[in-house]
Structures are given as structure tokens and as C-alpha cells.
Structure of proline dehydrogenase:
Amino acid sequence: MLGPVILAASRSDKMRRLVSAAPGTKQVVARFIAGEIVDDVVPIVRDLTARGLEVTLDVVGEDITTVEQSYAARDAYLELIGRLKELGLGERAEMSVKLSMFGQSLEDGHELALSNVRPVVVAAAEIGTTVTLDAEDHTTLDSMFAIHEELRKDFPQTGCVIQAYLFRTEEDARRLAANGSRVRIVKGAYKEPASVALQDKAEIDKAYVRIMKILMDGEGYPMIGSHDPRLIAIGQELARRAGRKLDEYEFQMLYGIRSEEQNRLAAEGHRMRVYTAYGTDWYGYFMRRLAEKPANLLFFVRSILTK
Ligand code: FAD
């Protein structure tokens, strides 16, 4: 019940100010956000890769309001890629980007987001890595898939994300599986109306399994983004039945969540990628993590009260 309320709050400027100023917030945010600047995240990338894990890096931010901010987002990723190059870490760290941070919702936002994300994809390719386009709320997805298709003409390794809770997703999965895309499947983290998305958790899980099967049986590279032990086990079984080798799909989890399970899957020989978010504009990302698990909210409230 609390999830939708927290997700609504994740879009409120008033709540943003309140949460950001609360004592104790920083300590809880640090569980999910790897730091504020590139130099905070570098040792974490080193540590994760030394433990046999792969990484995808997200400079947090979304829903910007000016074109200048969209350029700043592009430049933040270019700085990150430059740093990974210097350190020789490019091949094990890919990037995840939110197109809203690249200007997608501004005037002529589709073209602006495409022109901002392209240099990031080019720079990533130059250091031997790639970019995945995150999925945001359902109103942004036609534009996201069109940008994904456009980028794939020159950079076929560019990935995208699909969300099991949306009615449209099985069809999207079929198209992407047939055209050989890298696709991350997730349950979905936004507050979506019943007109476009399943609302019942069990139904979302069933849809997730159907979509995983489409991806595993297809021509692309499935990326299973979930912490749900049941779905991970089913993913392994579907991969086995589809005759996929261990390097023909991967698991992905978020930094700070179920780290032992991340280590266990990597130790079993699975490709296990940790989605590692950093930056100063952490509010939206942080609130979605609270919405996913009520215990996180309780921990957050306690840490405020004990300060
Ligand atoms: P759940 O049923 O929510 O969780 C299963 C178990 O995992 C829980 O019981 C709990 O033990 C643990 N867990 C899950 N979430 C948390 C948490 N926040 N804190 C502590 N424990 C937790 N969503 C999008 O809409 N677009 C994206 O682009 C996107 N990218 C993602 C990338 C990755 C790598 C991952 C893992 C998730 C991403 N998500 C994205 C979020 C996703 O949609 C879900 O909201 C999130 O993964 C929770 O669903 P779950 O599959 O882990 O299952």
C-alpha cells in the first residue's frame, strides 16, 4: 500500500526538499548510491570487478527542466567514460542512461535526447563498452525504443530495458528478441495506471516469466534484472532449456541489494552485473528503492528519528 504513495512523493519537489534536508538521510542514501562524484565510484568499480562482478554505471538524474542540464548530463557520462579509459576499466563497466536526463521531455526532446546520448554511445564504444537505455514511465517508451533502434544502426550492442508490468511489453519483447537486441527485463519501478499496467504482484511475476521465455528463446542477449530468487531460478532453467551458454545471458542487480546473492551467482560462473548509481541528484532513484521494500522506509524513518 505504501509503495504508490512513495512513488507519488518521488515526483514532488516539496518532498524532495524535505527528504534531502532530513538528518540521517545521507546515511540511508549511501546504501544505494555509490557516491557523488566519479572518484567516489572508481574504487567501487575496482572492488566489484575484482570480485568477479560486472558493472553498469548510472549517473543519477531525471526530469530535468533546461537544455543546459541535458548537456551537463551528457558531459557527466563523457567524464565518466574518460576516467574508465584512463583506468583501463572500460570493458567490464557499461553505462545505463535515463533519456529524461538527456532532455527527452523538453521541447523537441526526442531529437535533443538522441543528439545528447549519441556521443556517449560513441565514446563507450571507443573504450570497448556499451550503453543501455533505462525504461522510465510509459509515456516515454515509444521515444526510447525509437532512439534505441536509431542507435543500433551504428552500435548494435546498445541495450534497452523493458518492464514486465506493462501490457505492451510482451510485444516489445518479441520484436527485440527477433532483432537480436541486448534487453534488460525488469518488473517496473514507476507508478503506472491500470489502463497500461498490471497492478497485482503475482500477475507481474507471471508476465515476467513469459517475457523471460520470449527473450531466452530469441536471438538477442537477455539481461535478467531482478533480486527475486524465484525469478532468478526460473531464468536459469529457461536459459538451460533454450541451450544458452553462461556467456549468452546475464543477471543484473542493484548496488546495495542482495550482495551475497550477487557473489554467489558470480561464483557459480554466471555473468552478474551490478547496477551502480552515483551522483548528487539521487532523490528519484532513492525514493523508488524505498517504494520497492517497506522495510527500507522503516529504516529511513528510524534513522531520521534517532538523529
Ligand atoms: P521484488 O519482488 O521487488 O523483490 C524481490 C526481493 O528482492 C525482495 O523481497 C527483497 O528481498 C529484494 N529487494 C528488491 N528491491 C529491494 C530494495 N529496493 N531494497 C532492498 N531489497 C530489495 N525499473 C524500471 O522501471 N526501469 C529500469 O530501467 C530499471 N532498471 C533496473 C536495473 C536493474 C539492474 C534492476 C535490478 C532493477 C531495475 N529496475 C528498473 C527496478 C525494477 O523495475 C524493480 O523495481 C526492482 O528490481 C524490484 O523488483 P525485483 O525484481 O527485485 O523483485
The domain at 34-281 is CATH 3.20.20.220 (TIM Barrel). The chain has a mean pLDDT of 94. The pocket of flavin-adenine dinucleotide is lined by residues 134-135, 161, 163, 186-190, 225-228, 252-254, 257-258, 275, 289, 292-293, 296 (CB under 6 Å). The radius of gyration is 18 Å.
